Amino acid sequence: MKVILYLIRKEFLQIFRDRFLGKAIFAVPVVQMLLLVPAVTFEIRHVNLCVIDRDMTPASRELTGQLEGSSFFRITRKTFSEEEARTMMHRNRCDLILQIPEGFGRNIARGIPVPVQVGVNAINASNAQLSWGYLNGVIQNYNLNRLKKGAGMPAGVQLQQVSLSNRYWYNEMLNYRHYMMPGVLGILVLAIGFILAGLNLVKEKESGTIEQINVTPVKKYQFILGKMTPFLLIGLVDLAIGLTIGIFTFGVPFQGSILLLFLSSAVFLVGVLGLALFMSTFARTQQQFMFTGFFFIIVFVLMSGIFTPLESMPLWAQKIDLVNPMAYIMRINRMIMLKGSGFHDLRNDLLALVLIATAFTTLAVWRYRKTA
Amino acid sequence: MTSREPVITVQNLVKRFGSFVANDNLNFEVYAGEIFGFLGANGAGKTTALRILSGLSAPTSGKVMVAGVDAGRNPERIKRNIGYMCQRFSLYEDLTVTENITLYGGIYGMKRNEIRGKTAALLERLQFGAYGNTLISALPLGLRQKLAFAVAVLHQPKIVFLDEPTGGVDPITRRQFWEMIYETAAGGITVFVTTHYMDEAEYCDRVSIMSEGKIVALDTPAALKKQYGVSSVEEVFVKIARPGQQLIP
User: Fold this and answer.
1) What is the band of B130 on the pLDDT scale with cuts at 50, 70, 90?
2) CATH class of segment(s) A47-150
3) Does residue B126 belong to any structural domain of this protein?
């Protein structure tokens, strides 16, 4: 036990003596939170719209006027040339092309159905679907208003129809920052732990200092725990920094137990550190580790459910996620922070993290060779 | 000094890397308390053998006993009894002299007071007083090598392995280094040293010369010189370590 303390002390001395690392450890969570939480959002505002109005009647102008009036759309161009509209779309100047045919006003007044054509830039599929949905909403509104007018009702009167009333639970304002912050905290802890610990061990190989350690009677588990503990502590400190920024800067609510959040993150970190150290036993250079490590981080993050719901992933991908520690911590963080879930609600995810942490740490101890 | 009581016994040691035979059937003994010189050209297999003796590498076959422990079966148990100084400097350059000593003292299970006492004594003995809080990276090579040696024997091992400890070091520091070796041996620690400097070989109690993975000569410097009819170990070495090459007349 004492031996581990000497090893931990040595790591801390080295980390904080490194002028760059010593500062970066505290700067990274600040920058990452301030940058990623507000920047990563699925909210769409200001979809650029190009209108080809071949009708030019009060009816068509009413429709474009309603579009203009919504905060969602921004009419960047009105033209009569389909060619021009296409060029606009091609140059990314607009995302939607709305074509109102000639005779729109006349036909609609007679009660003849009029097709209105919409072209959507679908390079970003989810954006395209959302824009299309919003546009549909505006058109539906337009139709409703026409109906009311036809029935001789004033615009303010409510039409008798089935209407849905909804309430968004856990994130009532649908604030994306609230949704992203718990996930960004997970990424923060993952990246810091994984990269620092992995590079640290490989650096000892590169500089040859590990040779001197290997010739001592230090036990394998002592060495691995000596490497893990400092980065576990640093990861938790960074989590605290990130959490503070998230709560005070972005007003993200914290419904659950802070202790549970830190406990889960600690288990998560042990798994991450175990994997990093396991992988670093294979790498001979820091470059080799960074290359493979980066790949793992990207896969972990993209498959974690931070950007896309896990449930919409193919089944085989969901199976892979069973060993992705990031998927668990993402869910745990969100549930604790937004929903106030307790230990009992999270016990399966926590158990999975404990298993992952035990497995990766065991692998790291097993793979670390003092005798080649 | 030459007590004839073996602390290292090597029988039929073979180490292969794929098809390359780095150690080809080595047989030798090292006696307790002696200074054993392990000579050989670059690539002769010295470091490979040294790494096996210190439990860093497993032998392919053969029997290696170090301080009563089987190196092939139980390399970890050897490690408490030996000190090892790498050919490549391997203390932590971003730690100070004291911090390095404390770390290794701690790893070898020494008590806090014991470490403190040892550190003070060591700094004194090396005339390092002023360098206690100096980062290793700021130390000149000669001092680094002396410190590495001191750390290797900090825990009073039975045997210390030194792999080219004086490579690139100036003559004065080399001399001081050898004084340290003598002191260490006088204190009862067996010294196993590899070197390229043939004058250093003369200081050893016995030397072995390796060539292409085999030990081709092993005896006291005096006996070797007599056997080959030459006046220095250097000439012995040139005669036998590179059999394909002739001495320029």
Assistant:
1) confident
2) alpha beta
3) no
Is B120 contained in some domain? no
Shortest Cα distance, chain A CAs vs residue B31, angstroms: 22
Given a contact cutoff of 8 angstroms between Cβ atoms, the answer to whether B33 and B190 are in contact is yes
Is residue B2 over pLDDT 60?
no
Burial A304-313 (b: 16+ CB within 10 A, else e): bbbeeebeeb
Structural domain total, chain B? 1
CA B164 to CA B171: how far, in whole Å? 14
- Percent of chain B beyond pLDDT 90? 78
Q: Where are the domains of chain A?
A: 2-40+173-367, 47-150
Residues of chain B neighbouring A18 (CB-CB closer than 8 A): 94
Among B73, B81, B94, B107, the strongest candidate for a mutation testing the A interface, having the largest count of A CBs within 10 A, is B107
Instruction: For an interface test with A, give the residue of B57, B92, B97 to mutate (most A CBs within 10 A).
Output: B92
Q: Residue B190 is part of which domain span?
A: 6-90+158-241
For B17-67, write each residue's pLDDT tens digit.
999 999 999 999 999 999 999 998 888 899 999 999 999 999 999 999 999
Flag whether B139 is in a domain: no
Instruction: Note whether residue B11 is domain-resident.
Output: yes
Do B79 and A215 make contact, defined as CB atoms within 8 angstroms?
yes
The DSSP annotation for A195-229 comes to HHHHHHHHHHHHHTHHHHHHTS---HHHHHHHHHH
Interatomic CA distance for residues A237 and A231, integer angstroms:
10
The whole-number pLDDT of residue B249 equals 47
- CATH number, domain containing residue B204: 3.40.50.300
What pLDDT score was predicted for residue A149?
78
Q: Which of B57, B89, B107 sits opposite A371 (nearest CB)?
A: B57
Whether the model clears a pTM of 0.90, i.e. scores above it, the answer is: no
